[in-house]
Amino acid sequence: xxxxxxxxxxxxxxxxxxxxxxxxxxxxxxxxxxxxxxxxxxxxxxxxxxxxxxxxxxxxxxxxxxxxxxxxxxxxxxxxxxxxxxxxxxxxxxxxxxxxxxxxxxxxxxxxxxxxxxxxxxx
Length: 123
What we know:
Elements: E1 2-8, H1 10-18, E2 23-26, E3 34-41, E4 47-61, H2 62-69, H3 77-83, E5 89-105, E6 119-121
Parallel strand pairs: 1-3
Antiparallel strand pairs: 1-6, 2-5, 3-4, 4-5
């Protein structure tokens, strides 16, 4: 099991730590099994805010995945559809317990110089 760092928009970071977003949607999942996601909040924050446990993954056609996750999607149906517009399948990390860091970290703390477009393995 691996740990990855994901770049996530600030509004979605807030929802993850508030517990209202229990699924992190992605066009592609990491090839290796993931047990933890370290959350990098993109501009304007540009900080690593904390981490979240990964309880599993889901891969389905777009509409069934939305129906399965919409109660805790943390994203509007419209934005969900826009994001997966050209995809045959949709993927989601199932999120568990969160840990918000007392002091946000920079990417430098992980030896990373630029925010990843998708993700980067940390271990």
